[in-house]
Amino acid sequence: xxxxxxxxxxxxxxxxxxxxxxxxxxxxxxxxxxxxxxxxxxxxxxxxxxxxxxxxxxxxxxxxxxxxxxxxxxxxxxxxxxxxxxxxxxxxxxxxxxxxxxxxxxxxxxxxxxxxxxxxxxxxxxxxxxxxxxxxxxxxxxxxxxxxxxxxxxxxxxxxxxxxxxxxxxxxxxxxxxxxxxxxxxxxxxxxxxxxxxxxxxxxxxxxxxxxxxxxxxxxxxxxxxxxxxxxxxxxxxxxxxxx
Length: 244
Known about the structure:
alpha/beta, globular
């Protein structure tokens, strides 16, 4: 395939509210936070919804301790890129099940936040560079796609309507970060350092992985440069854009 055929397109800009739905603390920071920093700097409203508190993510730290640490790190990380609303659903880290409970919880958040853009992390079986994706990412991503439709139907999850969460049919796009089928991108040249700072807020998690600050910076730069090669040579982060 030629470089022109693989060229990434600019993301839509005619929206005001976005909701990012991911499985774990750190999911947004591995490549996507630079785009969020740019959006919030432009005055757009971005909220984060996490299915878990990442309690199973640090091998040497008991879950009851890790969930407190990782929640604190995620909130600090989000603030670096201008996100003040961070919510957690408390599904079990590592063993999230796709099903009605997860769909209902995400549909409730969509009705509450009323986004035009929904951001998820790659929900496909593999990553673009190879390697299997994990079940938590796949299940949360697929549940979010289904919950978008659920959120617009007043007769699905009728308890939400009874609780004052009215249907929302205003989601216009889903942006899938780190997708092997990327179509669009955002220039993060001016926000790259904030993206790095945001990832470095996950200090305990990075230490648990045995990664240094330089490792984290190198990962983000290499990823941004790779995306940018298909987007005019700038630092970029890519998305698979699904139009609804």
